[in-house]
Amino acid sequence: MNNNIAIFHNALDTIGGGEMVALYLARELKADLYTTNIDKESIIKMGFEDVLNNIFSIGKIPRKAPFKQQMALYRFRKLNLKNKYQHYIIAGDWAMSAGVNNKPNLWYAHTPLNEIWSFKDFIKHNMLKRWQWFFYDIWCFLNQKLTKQYSKHIDIWISASDVSHDRIKKYYNQESKIIYPPIDTKKYKISEDCKKDDYWISVNRLAQNKRVEMQIEAFAGLENENLIIVYDYDNGSSELIKYKDNILNLAQKYKNIKLIQAPEKEDLINLYKKAKAFITTSTGESAGMTSLEAMSSGLPVIAPKDGGYRQTISDDVGILIEEMNNKNIIEAIKTISSNIKKDKNKYYNNCISKAASYDLSEFIRKIKKNML
Description:
It is globular and about 60 Å long. By secondary structure, it is an alpha/beta fold. It folds into two domains: 5-180 and 360-371, 3-Layer(aba) Sandwich (Rossmann fold); 185-356, Rossmann fold. It has helices at 17-28, 40-45, 67-78, 120-126, 133-151, 162-172, 185-188, 212-220, 238-251, 265-274, 289-296, 309-312, 326-342, 348-356, 360-371; strands spanning 5-8, 32-35, 55-57, 87-90, 105-109, 156-159, 177-178, 200-205, 227-232, 257-261, 277-279, 301-304, 318-321. The protein has 15 helices and 13 strands. Helix 8 crosses helix 13 (326-342) and helix 11 (289-296) crosses helix 14 (348-356). The strands form two sheets. The protein has a seven-stranded parallel β-sheet. It has a six-stranded parallel β-sheet with strand order 10-9-8-11-12-13, with helices on both faces.
């Protein structure tokens, strides 16, 4: 236990990129981690069993949106640790209200608060029924005003990417330093002569903005290419459950597409290591940690020319697609596969080199520097 540092994160009931950052911070800084819902099994699966004794719940919250977000914001607003720690790190966007009572603080902002800002129109038109629009607009408006008030209590602003930096400036009129999220690259690194299997890999926390159906539709037309989709999902949302069911029903039609739900961390790393390439179709990503994990294993990446991918993916490590459609995705898959067939190590060194700049040790060094 480190009596100097406390970390705040919305919830640890499903583990994605944001949750991984919070867990890395807790482990590397030997800090206490305060959250709401806790899924111990998922935390252990992702390799953070050693952190469990330093994770504390401030109370459970609903699993269903928007009640989950609202109750997280409320609970962290009421949290007052009364100078128990010397430093506070906000690592979850809906925990940003903890900054009111807990100082000095640093907010490591992944996006921030997609649901009321940058993803508002997407959610409204793709996840809600028309009769819900009016109520959603009111909810967004109220929380925009509320979080702007809370944002005045943030001492140090850190953004997870150029995209996050621009959103913070746009929505909260604050400047922030950019520190990209960490990858424990030594766990993913493989030798150039590692035996590969003939499959692509995709890793997603299923949600509509991930557009996983695009991956399935593309590989459905490529019988000689195989795709493994690693996924998890938030089972507290009826819309996300429906989307998950649609993806599973669509994928099972094709023999060259396999789905694996929430493997343990070591199994996921092995899947990366044996894959030949990585694909993501997600829109609006602030950084895209799974693509960085893939590059840590020397895998070239296909991604949309969108969000944080524009900073992390270049021509020497993969392909950015300007217009995401079936034709362009298939063409990119064929190009990468052809290049690998001609030279299996074509992308390897560049991917490893690119991923090294996002190593966990460098991330922790920069966070510590900004806490002083």
